[in-house]
Design goal:
This protein has 375 residues and is α/β, with parallel strands linked by helices. The chain folds into two domains: 4-26 and 250-373, 2-Layer Sandwich (Heat Shock Protein 90); 46-188, no CATH class. The protein has nine helices and eight strands. It has helices at 51-54, 56-77, 85-105, 119-149, 157-221, 226-246, 254-272, 297-308, 343-354, and strands at residues 4-7, 252-253, 276-282, 290-291, 315-322, 325-330, 358-362, 368-373. Helix 2 crosses helix 5. The longest helix has 65 residues, at 157-221.
């Protein structure tokens, strides 16, 4: 039963003493700084929070730049009756600070609308709220311009039109930015939720499947080889312990996944003897890379089920991790290109896609090979 398990060019993956702390650093959902919790509110990741809440100084600098450009642009058109480009830029800065800050600090109260309302009604109510809030902000900005700069924007039709245009440009920019940011944040949350649902589906399928295979192995060994049956029982306990630990973690190190694969393959080795040979090669640079737990286990079980077991004679299974990818290959009976993927493979593909990874079948010459590109 010649099997090699190790880190490429380094040490063996052996017992539990080699295990490090589990990695569980998936980004939590957080409130924006200074924003109180609201019932029913969708919590956005930090990168979806308004910039003014995260980095006020950076926000102020951007507001000054944007306001200066807007004011200078209006000055070039000749619509504003403000004397001098500098004064036009000062007006633009005040308008930008008030309108951008107002929309950043006060969210549209979408969660306060009645849940029974139809989506289009909520949309109309939100537009009405934005128009009212925009009008109030314009009034505040015009008042500040008169108090700080001595310019009466309301007293000149052209200057008022220019002020409204600046306000519309700023609010349009803010609305587009916020809409895109929220959509990206919600899409990411949805992808993670779908990946979690797929993980739970895999959990329901995987644990009994692995357990039944192991029990069959032990049952087949008890009559003639009780010592090996006892060893198989110990290995099964270790395997189940790792699986139960994995189900409690959002992420863990790749070496943890390789240790779990070793437990599974050692158990299968007791059942099939010299027919099964396997190699686990993990590049040291990837040993601590965080991945979703039980990501590779369905792929190895798939290789055992469809590549090894139908084959007459010995079969070698290799799992190699290097250069940001994991390759799982066997020299078994192979796979038809048109063969549909089962639930386990589809689940792995969906979980990878949710984290920016991918799964693809590669030409192995003999047998079958799949490559997992980690996100």
């Amino acid at each position: 039963m010649g099997t090699g398990v190790g880190v490429m060019g380094c040490n063996r993956l052996e017992n539990d003493s080699r295990r490090g702390p589990l990695v569980g650093n998936s980004p939590p959902l957080v409130r924006c700084p200074g924003q109180p919790p609201r019932p029913g509110r969708i919590l956005a990741p930090m990168d979806a929070c308004p910039l003014i809440r995260q980095h006020p100084l950076r926000w102020a600098l951007q507001a000054v730049v944007l306001g200066s450009l807007a004011g200078f642009g209006i000055h070039l058109t000749g619509m504003a009756g403000v004397t001098g480009a500098l004064r036009s830029m000062e007006v633009g800065i005040i308008l930008t600070v008030v309108i951008w800050g107002g929309f950043d600090l006060v969210d549209a109260p979408l969660e306060r609308f009645p849940k029974a309302w139809r989506p289009e009604w909520i949309g109309l109510a939100a537009v009405a709220w934005i128009l009212v809030w925009f009008t109030l902000l314009i009034a505040v900005a015009v008042t500040l311009v008169r108090l700080l700069l001595g310019v009466n924007l309301a007293g000149d039709r052209h200057m008022m039109i220019a002020s409204v245009l600046i306000g519309l440009a700023i609010s349009g920019f803010m609305a587009t930015r916020e809409t895109v940011a929220r959509k990206v944040a919600l899409d990411r949350q949805l992808a993670k939720a779908e990946a979690r649902a797929a993980f739970l589906s895999l959990q329901a399928q995987l644990s009994p499947h692995t357990l039944f295979n192991a029990l069959n192995t032990i049952a087949s060994l008890i009559p003639e080889e009780p010592a090996r049956a006892e060893e198989a029982t110990v290995r099964l306990a270790a395997l189940l312990r790792r699986i139960l630990g994995a189900l409690e973690q959002p992420e863990w190190a790749l070496r943890e996944e390789f240790s779990l694969l070793e437990d599974l393959l050692r158990l299968e080795e007791l059942r099939f003897g010299d027919r099964l040979r396997f190699e686990l090669a993990l590049a040291p640079a990837m040993a601590d890379q965080p991945i979703q737990p039980l990501l590779l286990l369905p792929l190895v079980e798939n290789a055992l089920k469809h590549g090894f077991r139908p084959k007459v004679g010995p079969c070698t299974l290799r799992v190699t991790a290097r250069d940001g990818a994991v390759r799982i290959e066997d020299d078994g009976v192979g796979r038809l290109g048109s063969a549909p993927e089962g639930l386990g493979l589809r689940t792995v593909r969906e979980r990878l896609a949710a984290c920016g990874g991918s799964l693809r079948w590669v030409d192995a010459g003999v047998g079958c090979a799949v490559e997992v590109r980690l996100g």
